[in-house]
Amino acid sequence: xTNAIEIRELTKCYKDFTLDRVTLSLPSxxxxxxxxxxxxxxxxxxxxxxxMISRDSGEIIILGKDNRENFKLTKExxxxxxxxxxxxxxxxxxxxxxxxxxxxxxxxxxxxxxxLKKLGVPEKxxxxxxxxxxxxxxxxxxxxxxxxxxxxxxxxxxxxDPIARDEVVDMFYEFTRDEDHSILISSHIVSDLEKxxxxxxxxxxxxxxxxxxxxxxxxxxxxxxxxxxxxAKIPEKAIIGKKVTPYSVEAIVxxxxxxxxxxxxxxxxxxxxxxxxxxxx
Length: 281
Fold this sequence. Notes:
The chain is of the alpha/beta class. It is built from ten helices and 14 strands. The strands form three sheets. It has a six-stranded mixed β-sheet, sandwiched between helices. Strands 2-1-4-5 form a four-stranded antiparallel β-sheet, covered by helices on one side. Helix 3 packs antiparallel against helix 4 and helix 4 (109-119) packs antiparallel against helix 5. The longest helix is centred in the middle third of the chain and has 14 residues, at 162-175.
């Protein structure tokens, strides 16, 4: 299987933050969710992928090409939605669609109109008059309307109500039914990513804590509860994180390290991330 994205030892240093030697791969035809708290490095990673900022070291390969060398044609194959949708404030979506005909060689005006209608974006309302949610929907419509092979999305469901989020998630899922299509999506709304993604990557304070197939994560870890003495029976290296109260201990542990006879329950991705971050803290 080829990879849509390959990142190796990617590093970017600021005065008060470092994205530290991040390495991950997104296989073609798959969706990867990039999870992390505010300031974890999600947006920095995406800006580096798009060559919007320069990296200090490391390697980025997108759709088979280094993202700093002869990348102009490759960008035609990438649909992008950033947290801040930067479009001319005085133009309406209909006018913006006409401009996009000149920005993308594969622009499909009819597809664009269909997405605007499906997402309920008013064609003749100025961009500055649109709500944050409507601006995000417009960005998604643009990203999907020039036949991209890869979507890179930074908090694309931010500002959307639950019904609209569900609809957008379904559209992304439909996009990857083509095995040549892939998505990298960052979000702090973990429930959206858990439903949508094949792979999950955890960023925390600029470090990649974990990158794995979602099903492997969910199958490989369980929640156990009991007294401190009960939890002490589990090897410390098998404990991802734990929450201690005066009355009991709750821990997320590797499934194959749970002592025989100890009860456990399934874990979701949000719980796994929270427990891992608490352990780091």
